[in-house]
Automatic annotation (TrEMBL):
Pfam families on file: HTH_34
SUPFAM superfamilies hit by this protein: Winged helix' DNA-binding domain
Domain of life: Bacteria
This protein's name: Transcriptional regulator
Ranges of residues in domain Winged helix DNA-binding: 11-90
InterPro entries: WH-like_DNA-bd_sf, WH_DNA-bd_dom, WH_DNA-bd_sf
Amino acid sequence: MGLDALLNAPVRLRLASLLAAVSELEFVTLREALGVSDSVLSKQVTALTQAGYARSRKGTHQDRRTTWIALTRPGHEALRAHVAALRAIIADVD
């Protein structure tokens, strides 16, 4: 498989990589880890969700409403394939 066009965007690649390491993360935690605005993160989460790579759920945490984001199985598979393609591209780099 080749590079995944959706995961070529640096923020989406970083977002998917963060989500791959956990079962889910709170929107605010993701925003802070990525250093982006709410609107930028929302747009990137929407793109991943529409592709079936991520899912979100609303809930409460410490008496406040929040959104939790998780990578789906297809998202994990796409990320693994994308990373493998990146590794193949750089395999001969010193």
